[in-house]
Design a protein that fits this description.
Layout lengths: L5 H6 L5 E4 L6 E4 L7 E4 L2 H21 L22 H14 L3 H37 L47
Antiparallel strand pairs: 1-2, 2-3
Length: 187
């Protein structure tokens, strides 16, 4: 990485993250591209002003100590990645993809998508499930449905989400071993 001067780095447009603390109040601001560069303030504006000052001190210290300062990440990702893995893992993934009747690329995309975004989607679905369960409980207890409540069959309460694929609400995730009996793990 080419070392430049403080004026150059200060002129760069670094993205920031601003997080509101609902429990204690105030805001916490960071630059994701500058590990450890952070500040806080009572308002968003104060947190951002403090982050600007912290960024200058952070960069100045790094440059004085001869440490690298990253430039902001720019551009779009290509969507291509070269991945090395043990041949045994590769063989297992190919076997699982073949069992599912999909290509290795699709299997890996499904696994990575679940890891990156599926957990937050699953948490949202679980929140919706809790709300629906509360509505069902109200209906069963004789409460009136409001205009925003869904009419649900009391004989069939909703169950937990088993996967996030829209094509089949009851199918296991793409990477799950569909040949294993329920309640067991495939070898």
């Amino acid at each position: 990485m080419k070392t430049r001067d403080l004026a150059y780095y200060m002129s760069c447009n670094y993205p920031y993250e601003l997080i509101r603390d609902p429990e204690q109040g105030g805001y916490f601001a960071t630059h994701p591209d500058l590990d450890g560069c952070a500040a806080q303030g009572e308002t968003a504006e104060e947190a951002m002003a403090a982050l600007d000052a912290a960024r200058e001190l952070w960069m100045e210290t790094r440059l004085e100590d001869g440490l690298p300062v990253s430039e902001p990440a720019v551009g779009q990702s290509s969507g291509r990645v070269s991945l090395r893995m043990p041949s045994a893992v590769h063989a297992q993934l190919i076997k699982k993809a073949n069992k599912q009747g999909v290509g290795l690329d699709l299997l890996l995309n499904a696994i990575l998508s679940e890891y990156v975004g599926g957990l937050s989607a699953r948490m949202r679905l679980e929140g919706i499930l809790q709300q629906l369960t509360a509505v069902v409980a109200e209906v069963r207890n004789g409460a009136r449905l409001t205009s925003t409540s869904a009419r649900l069959s009391p004989s069939r309460p909703p169950g937990p989400p088993t996967n996030l694929r829209p094509d089949s609400a009851s199918a296991p995730p793409l990477w799950a071993d569909r040949t294993a009996p329920a309640g067991t793990r495939a070898a």
